[in-house]
Amino acid sequence: MIRFLAFFLGLVLLSCNPKKQEAPILVETSKEIQLDSLPEISISNSSGLFRNWPTLQLFSQTYEALYKVNNSEDLLLAVENALKSIENLENQQKPEEIGSPGYLSRLDLLKTELFRLKEKLSEGQFDSTILEDTFNAYKGLMSYISLQWERNGN
User: Fold this and answer.
1) pTM here?
2) Within a 10 A sphere around the Cβ of 142, how many other Cβ atoms?
3) CA atoms of 99 and 128, how far apart (whole Å)
4) pLDDT at 30 > cutoff 60
5) In the beta sheet, which residues pair with residue 32?
6) DSSP states of 90-149 as a string?
7) Residue 80 confidence (pLDDT)
């Protein structure tokens, strides 16, 4: 019995051996960033859509502000503003022509990508691939909204 306890205690002590924990490598970027201009997104019948849904128009302007900054602090502020604008979209009444499941899932994807970008910027890093992912999520959301708006006769 004592041998068994000694063996068991030895296994426990060996498994508790502290392993080296590698610190994440942070790459400090310069404060100045260069962003390409926002690629054009064609939204069919957009004037009627924006006229009937001013919260979407405000959100679109807020998102597009991400591409008008030239330093990481301003980009972080623009990301935070875009996240607040998404909250407004979630809390405001949307036109009934826009189907809820697809709209909400695309909105959640965009919010997730913006949170990823915010986290990187808060760590002092800038990752252009995450910015590209946010654009793709934005484009998917706006294309879905446009398609739903077209399909339902507007």
Assistant:
1) 0.71
2) 21
3) 31
4) no
5) 71
6) HHSPPPTTS-HHHHHHHHHHHHHHHHHHHHHHHTT---HHHHHHHHHHHHHHHHHHHHHH
7) 94
